[in-house]
Amino acid sequence: MNLVYINSANGLSKAALETVTYAKKLGADVAVVTNGGADASVLASLGNYGASVVYQDSSLDGQDPSQLVKLVAAAAQKIGAATIIFSHDLIGKAVAPRLSVRLKAGLVAGAVALPEANGNVKVNVFSGKAFGYVQVNSATRIISLLPNSIQPEANSVSCAVEAFDSQAGASAITVKATKKPEGAIPLPEAERVVSAGRGLKGPENWGVVEDLATALGAATACSRPVADIGWRPHHEHVGQTGVAIRPNLYIAAGISGAIQHLAGVNGSKVIVVINTDAEAPFFKAADYGIIGDAFEVLPRFTEAVKRFKAAQH
Amino acid sequence: MNILVCISKAPDTTSKIAFTNGDTQFDENGVQYIVNPYDEWYALVRALELKEAQGGNVTIITVGTATDDAVIRKALAIGADDAVRIDAPATDAYFTAMQIAEYAKGKGFDLILTGKETIDYNGSQVAGMLAEALDLPFISVAAKLDVEGATVKAEREIVGGFQEVEVQTPVVISCAKGMAEQRIPNMRGIMAARTKPLNVVAPVALDALTTYSSYSMPAAKSSVKLIDPNNLDELVALLHNEAKVI
Ligand SMILES: Cc1cc2nc3c(=O)[nH]c(=O)nc-3n(C[C@H](O)[C@H](O)[C@H](O)COP(=O)(O)OP(=O)(O)OC[C@H]3O[C@@H](n4cnc5c(N)ncnc54)[C@H](O)[C@@H]3O)c2cc1C
Ligand SMILES: Nc1ncnc2c1ncn2[C@@H]1O[C@H](COP(=O)(O)O)[C@@H](O)[C@H]1O
């Protein structure tokens, strides 16, 4: 049996469904372990993606990675897990490496595909500029799956939800405050992203970017200089030194496409570039390009999306 | 305050990425190595700021071979007091973390800082592994860091936002953007770095848990399809019918 850790504190994220789908595709039965007090009916719906059982420790809030390690280790021991899957998100990055040491189990960090026939697992390396194939030398293996690498897939299995006491002890970490912009789509999870750079000339001009993002149900992002000068918040900065994203659709307006920017976005499935300069390097990495002024193109793009949506209804 | 900063080398961000030996090895031909940006700009500089404000010592540690000494000297030039190099190739994150843990054990470091990830292998693994090996709390991807007595006050990234947390020293923290500003080493720092202690330590016997067996490059993008800026309806139709993303 294989084990998946998911964070269900805020319901079931797309990343959670991806990891359960991934585990099911490995072949064996899938057990899920989770912390927090989500409703049993919500957790049981993981059966729709292939999970046979969910172990829930509702007493753990999940703020201390060393507690989550004990939770996952206890569940892994209970079922004799051969493979343990995490999402390669902020929680997975904090917990999976600790678990690797605790279980002496090799960790494949940032997998982008199912294991190959020889068992090697493909990961992103060099900030998305290449792929590596990782061989695990231990009997138990841990895989953290890069978000948006596979699509959740229906796979109806009957699923039991069982209370689980991980005896994880007290948290060493005290949470003082949480700052989360309301309603915004977290960038690493967004399926569509509208991004803009220095070509937008100033923070007061971002309305056209936000309008398109709203019309598409997309998150907004920016290039590094734009975050550095304070036109946009730091968490929107994508690229080598910012957030790495791999949405289905990445729209870049007024961004030149420097190699360090591309490093964070070149995993996107489809890239649309809008730039006044036909020589901008970004066009080489784009699927669709518009040579034109962002201040004219973006509003027209928004109108076209609205027309399309209206026609669909 | 005693601070240990884990420093990795990384290829300069403009390096051409290619592989040799039947795609089993990174081609280092013409590659310039720098200090991994997260380690340098955020972990090291914040460690130096804390030391300057509160006293103490900043030691840097690298698992690597003699070819890494140039990169270690760069980090010393920025202001670290002394350096340790565990004399072995950093075969995988587990090997690397266990070597650092072996060295750090019992030495009384209050803070152990790493970068959020290396920009070559992007694993985000070493810090968490180190914390587990030393049985210490771990703050992952911190954007702010302050220390008052034995209390560490940090801001860490969470999905869709940030969280202020507190924890008692000793602790392992992986550092990201926001924590400090890049420092350019001056001539005096570069001169001083030449004579600062660089202790070479033998590794402990240990097997890696993972191996990179080969590499590949992504398929080249087919050339861009240009759309008339006056015909955005065409673009939307293509995104729907052809690319199937809206
Ligand atoms: C170590 C290192 C790490 C880095 N990490 C990152 C990173 O993580 N992310 C990142 O983004 N950058 C990063 N950079 C910076 C990167 O090299 C570029 O400098 C940066 O991405 C450029 O941002 P930009 O495209 O917004 O601005 P510019 O390069 O100034 O480009 C602006 C573009 O807008 C176009 N333009 C102008 N007016 C219009 C208009 N009206 N309509 C449409 N287009 C217009 C121009 O033709 C131009 O192509 C890093 C650099 C280094 C050295
Ligand atoms: N060979 C190494 N020697 C010392 N520290 C390292 C080494 N490799 C990685 N680290 C540290 O661990 C962090 C995360 O690395 P990684 O797990 O490879 O993404 C880096 O930012 C460094 O601070």
Layout of SSEs?
The complex is a heterodimer of chains A (313) and B (246).
Chain A: E1 2-7, H1 14-25, E2 30-35, H2 40-44, E3 51-57, H3 65-79, E4 83-87, H4 90-103, E5 106-111, E6 121-125, E7 130-136, E8 141-145, E9 160-163, E10 174-179, E11 192-196, H5 207-216, E12 219-222, H6 224-228, E13 249-253, H7 259-265, E14 270-275, E15 288-291, H8 294-312
Parallel strand pairs in A: 1-2, 1-4, 2-3, 3-9, 4-8, 5-8, 11-12, 11-13, 13-14, 14-15
Antiparallel strand pairs in A: 6-7
Helix pairs in contact in A: 3-4, 5-8
Chain B: E1 2-6, E2 9-11, E3 19-20, E4 25-26, E5 33-35, H1 37-54, E6 57-64, H2 69-78, E7 82-87, H3 93-104, E8 111-115, H4 126-134, E9 138-148, E10 151-158, E11 161-168, E12 171-175, H5 187-193, E13 198-201, E14 210-216, E15 225-226, H6 232-241
The structure holds flavin-adenine dinucleotide and adenosine monophosphate (AMP).
Helix content of chain A: 25-40%
Largest interface: A-B, 97 and 78 residues
Tell me the number of helical segments of chain B per DSSP (H or I, 4 or more residues long).
6
CATH architecture label name of the largest domain in chain A: 3-Layer(aba) Sandwich
User: How many strand segments of chain B?
Assistant: 15
Give the fraction of residues assigned to helices of chain B. Answer: 25-40%
Compressed to H and E, one letter per element, the order of chain A equals EHEHEHEHEEEEEEEHEHEHEEH
The helix-and-strand class of chain B reads alpha/beta
3D shape of chain A: elongated
Distance from N terminus to C terminus of chain B (CA atoms, Å) equals 54 Å
Shape of chain B: globular
**How big a fraction of the residues of chain B is strand?**
25-35%
Q: What would you report as the Rg of chain A, rounded to the nearest angstrom?
A: 21 Å
Strand content of chain A: 25-35%
Q: Could you name the ranges of chain A where pLDDT drops below 50 across 5 or more consecutive residues?
A: none
CATH superfamily descriptor of the largest domain in chain A: HUPs
Mean pLDDT of chain A: 94
Task: Write the H/E string of chain B, N to C.
Answer: EEEEEHEHEHEHEEEEHEEEH
Quaternary class: heterodimer
* Overall number of strands of chain A: 15
Describe the strand arrangement of the main beta sheet of chain A, using strand numbers.
5-8-4-1-2-3-9
